[in-house]
Amino acid sequence: MRRTLSPRVECLGLMLLALLLIGAGLGFRTAQNVDEERFLGVALEMLQNGAWLIPHRAAEIYGDKPPIFMWTVAFFTWLTGKPNIALYLPGLFSGVTVTAMVYDLGRRLWTQRTGRNAALLYLATYQTYSILRTGQIDSFLILFTSLGLYGLARHLLLGPAWRWFYVGCAAMGIGVITKGVGFLPALLLIPYAWAVRKDWPGVVAMPGEARKWLFGFVVMLAAIAIWLLPLALSIIFNGGADEVAYAREILLRQTAGRYADAWHHREPFWYFFTNVIPQYWLPLFLVLPWLVPAWRRQLKKHDGRVLVLLGWVVLVVLFFCFSSGKRKLYIYPALPGLVLIAAPLIPWLLKRWFKGRPRLQRAFPALVAAWFVLWFARGFIEPVKDGENPDQTLMVKAASVSHGADLVLVNWQEGHWLFAHQPVVHFGMLDSTVQRAAQWLSEHPKAYALVPSEQVGECFKTEGAQALGESSGSQWSIVSADADNGKCRPGSATTVYRFAWDKPLSPGKSVTPAQASNP
Prior knowledge:
There is one protein chain. The chain is mainly alpha-helical. The protein folds into 2 domains: 7-30 and 88-381, no CATH class; 390-517. It has 23 helices and 8 strands. 44% of the residues are buried. Its main location: membrane. Pfam families: PMT_2. It is a multi-pass membrane protein.
């Protein structure tokens, strides 16, 4: 008789697998894209200036995202002293924790084998690898949306479990102040309500509990207030026009406004079905032709578990389809629900495939192992392939050429600020034009300006510019006040931001906890 591992031991083994796959190459990776540079820079600036309620980017208020993820990166930087590791620890922690939740929920809803299959499917999916290994907010958001899913599912499908329901509501609240869509698990209530009304088995009806349901909403609001209440009080008592504008931006324009009329990443309604799911939900996408009819048969049998979880996955995907702005990572919160409803069908599917194919049956475990080994190996190959961040190289050259003088940034990117080795001056992320840089240099002749090479001729003599190299998709040059060609006239006064790292940092450097809290 085959001996089965205890659920606790098996769960720990799956968590260890998640740790190995997602953590492979940790310490070799450096911030490579705009998002990672931005979030790491904001976190380090929080540690330097102590402004925790309102994030800043090179001294300018950064109003695109709430601060929870940046707080977490700042905490891990303080704890480890290694920014290049701290940036990726939220995703690693999320991956290990979500794997455990997926396993446990699959085990409780179906069988231990189903829990194991669900966890392995979650870790095998390409989107898991591509998101959890990045230093992006979505790598941390999945922790709270999955905890919300877990808490609500424990209550709606295995309950009554009001404590788990409140845990799920609190997780949604933290998710909202991590990224506005943290409320997504609440969409479970829609298919659940329909299943209860139709008296489907597999769901737990809880009539006459209006106060307890309403208290869940209060719990979610209380979790949101962890950040929002101190922010509101700070703005009321000490806030100026910039702080009020930040609150308006983060609470209205970056949430409802961005969903209804996005100004970036505009894609058609079907974008996720044609450009994301076929690639990022591999290998599950390959078996959808078998899974969809099987789900249909389960729904005909009135399986409430399948209805609630499958309905939720569909609602999440449709929620993002209706938004004009779309990115590949948006639908990732739906993946744990998808693997949970796919996992019970895996044994049936494999039995169907292996029938009359003994060689395939013998080779299948090796194929699965090879799939995971390749992901693990890629974790070490990618950092070598990516190499050093070109923004870091550029800013080292700029500091050398300018001898550490003030550097005016023109059409700058986050990497120019993150890797700066000298004081930087700018006029806002969207208003740092070459004309304003020329005006500043005319008034501060000892300063230099970092300008995209194709814009140098607008205000400066091209022969007076020194090429530094390429980064952020552009060629960059550095100029001094002596290179002014006189074509740019002084403009109207504008807001000037000046920022300098007390101790210049880069993802490749370490900082002690004492330096992190007192740079």
